[in-house]
């Protein structure tokens, strides 16, 4: 009785253990993109004109809805 429960317990640990593994991303695939810092923005922050490009990007994205709302308000019917 003790031997069978010991074997069952030992096999249970082996079966219950999951084999997690990681693989290297395949950069040739169209579904895998470069990862890491500064890879998800549309400009290179290490350039000389980063400050101006950043603020142009932010002003355009945040200001466009307000500019469109003002334009729609003053538009003639």
From TrEMBL:
Keyword list, A-Z: Membrane, Mitochondrion, Mitochondrion inner membrane, Transit peptide, Transmembrane, Transmembrane helix
Membrane-spanning ranges: 52-71
Entry-linked InterPro entries: COX7C/Cox8, COX7C/Cox8_sf
Pathway, per record: Energy metabolism; oxidative phosphorylation
Superkingdom of the source species: Eukaryota
Gene Ontology CC: mitochondrial inner membrane; respiratory chain complex IV
Family to which this protein belongs: Belongs to the cytochrome c oxidase VIIc family.
Subunit (UniProt): Component of the cytochrome c oxidase (complex IV, CIV), a multisubunit enzyme composed of a catalytic core of 3 subunits and several supernumerary subunits. The complex exists as a monomer or a dimer and forms supercomplexes (SCs) in the inner mitochondrial membrane with ubiquinol-cytochrome c oxidoreductase (cytochrome b-c1 complex, complex III, CIII).
Free-text function comment from the UniProt entry: Component of the cytochrome c oxidase, the last enzyme in the mitochondrial electron transport chain which drives oxidative phosphorylation. The respiratory chain contains 3 multisubunit complexes succinate dehydrogenase (complex II, CII), ubiquinol-cytochrome c oxidoreductase (cytochrome b-c1 complex, complex III, CIII) and cytochrome c oxidase (complex IV, CIV), that cooperate to transfer electrons derived from NADH and succinate to molecular oxygen, creating an electrochemical gradient over the inner membrane that drives transmembrane transport and the ATP synthase.
The protein's name: Cytochrome c oxidase subunit 8, mitochondrial
Organism, scientific name: Penicillium oxalicum (strain 114-2 / CGMCC 5302)
Taxonomic placement: Eukaryota, Fungi, Dikarya, Ascomycota, Pezizomycotina
